[in-house]
Design a protein that fits this description.
- The structure is a single chain.
- By secondary structure, the protein is α+β, with helices and mostly antiparallel strands.
- Helix content is about 40%, strand content about 25%.
- The strands form six sheets. A seven-stranded mixed β-sheet has the order 1-2-3-4-5-7-6. It has a seven-stranded antiparallel β-sheet with strand order 13-14-18-19-17-16-15. A three-stranded antiparallel β-sheet has the order 8-10-11.
- The protein is globular.
Length: about 475
């Protein structure tokens, strides 16, 4: 088994194979810790992992940023000690020492048996009541922190661990403190950040959760509920902007691969030993007998990779002007990748994005591009209506779904760009949005109003002269008066 020191951990970046051994100091002698599973990593700076030490399971936090490891270790220790001092549960510190060779430190913490982060609990929840239970547990934990004068500026559900109905606070390095309970304004800002990390449909729980918060901490004024919703919307927009900047680089969720003639970013979920074949030659996966569309601007085909069905959309460049235009601007495939990721973050259903690929000249100049997504086995909305029509209950559900979609688009200044009925599915009682390369998120309210008006007009054109013209038109009439 390999033995790593700080310099190797910095050099390897995100690609650190486990298990591996780490040598640490125990007074004046050396001992080893076996790192088995990396839980979180900030490349070249720090990581958190499950490990074996002195015949016991532990959590180890390693700090190895060449210039900041001492400061990062100090911040984490300070935060943990603040939690302990103020009687809030956190895994116990078992050992704190330097990594052999210096230039790094290890902080060994108690391993909580059967512990799961609140994020994991929410992901595994099967019913709305289960989900409400975990949200209630989380909000009560945040309220307890605020009452003790502590808060986390980058608050998220992976920093709360549940075991046997008890909550443990994680990530001492992100703890901030006052000597008194948080003022109402600061507590409200922190809660807005908390609510903003969830999809828009969770906003209906905010009023109830604020009442539960006050059961634990009464130092919060909730009369201005409208103000809280506005703060959540603003915080969510900021999260989206931050998320956008990460979508074209390697992160915990995605990996970026770049060469002289290619750029690809893909979801690590599909990582495999044969993925290079798809990246190097996506055209081989576009077979005539699997074509879904063969147009001038785009070619769409389904294909099977590693026993799973996908769709690949190739964006063709059919003129010299198009070739020159896309040399320097974001490719349509990259726009689809970004747009699908943003919609998913907001809770709008769209086929899961798995990868985009760009053919490149000399590293930077773009040529053809490809977007790979989930294959959903369903007819588009236009085909569905032509084949079967819409039952009354189905029409009512679709109207509600479109109203929610348009409300999200208005709140976050998003235009779609092509609201044809064929660019939507109604699948498993969900409205699914397709064809996202024309989607834009606008900064200017004036430009957005012009773009959303075009979306509304194109949407209404789908139903002109049909029995659906009035019910869908009513949605637009209602929404146009709201902004």
């Amino acid at each position: 088994m390999k033995i790593y020191r700080s310099a190797e951990l910095v050099r390897l970046g995100r690609h650190i194979s486990t298990p591996y051994l780490l040598e640490i100091y125990d007074k004046n002698s050396l001992e080893t810790i076996e790192v088995r599973e990396i839980l979180r990593i900030v490349p070249k700076r720090r990581l958190t992992a499950k490990a074996e030490w002195r015949d016991s399971s532990v959590i180890v936090k390693l700090f190895f940023s060449p210039s900041h490891w001492k400061r990062n270790l100090s911040r984490d220790l300070s935060g943990i000690n603040l939690l302990i001092k103020r009687n809030l549960r956190t895994p116990a510190i078992l050992h704190e020492t330097q990594i052999a060779g210096g230039r790094g430190a290890a902080l060994i913490l108690e391993y909580i048996n059967d512990g799961k982060t609140i994020s994991e609990c929410l992901d595994e929840a099967k019913t709305n009541s289960e989900r409400r239970r975990w949200l209630s547990l989380a909000i009560g934990s945040i309220a307890a922190c605020h009452r003790q004068g502590l808060w986390q500026p980058d608050i998220h559900m992976k920093n709360f661990l549940e075991s046997d109905n008890q909550v443990y606070y994680l990530d001492g390095g992100d703890i901030r403190a006052l000597e008194r309970p948080l003022p109402s304004e600061l507590a409200s800002q922190n809660l807005a950040l908390f609510f903003a990390q969830f999809t828009v449909d969770n906003d209906e729980n905010i009023e109830r959760l604020l009442k539960e918060y006050q059961l634990e901490n009464k130092n919060l004024h909730t009369k201005d509920l409208k103000g809280m919703f506005s703060a959540v919307k603003e915080a969510r927009a900021q999260r989206i902007s931050s998320y956008e900047r990460k979508l074209l680089r390697s992160t915990t969720a995605h990996r970026r691969v770049r060469s002289l003639g290619k750029l690809a970013v893909y979801d690590r979920e599909i990582d495999s030993s044969t993925l290079d074949n798809l990246i190097s030659d996506p055209n081989r996966y576009i077979q005539k007998d699997r074509l879904l569309k063969d147009g001038n601007s785009t070619t769409v085909a389904e294909f099977i990779f590693e026993n799973k069905r996908y769709v690949v959309k190739r964006y063709n460049l059919n003129s010299l002007w198009q070739s020159v235009k896309y040399l320097f601007k974001m490719s349509r495939a990259a726009r689809c990748w970004r747009s699908a990721s943003i919609l998913s973050m907001l809770g709008v259903h769209t086929p899961k994005p798995y990868m985009f690929i760009e053919d490149r000249w000399l590293w930077f100049l773009r040529a053809k591009s490809y977007f790979v997504s989930e294959k959903i086995e369903a007819a588009n909305l236009l085909e569905h209506i032509k084949a079967k029509g819409l039952r009354q209950n189905e029409l009512e559900a679709i109207i509600i779904s479109f109203r929610l979609l348009f409300k999200i688009m208005i709140d976050y200044k998003i235009s779609h760009g092509d609201m044809k009925a064929s660019n939507f599915l109604y699948w498993n009682n969900k409205l699914v949005v397709l064809d996202l390369d024309g989607m834009r998120r606008h900064r200017s309210k004036r430009v957005f109003k012009k773009a959303i008006k075009k979306d509304f007009d194109r949407f209404l054109k789908n139903w002109k002269g049909t029995e659906y013209e009035q019910p869908f038109g009513n949605i637009i009439d209602e929404l146009e008066t709201s902004f």
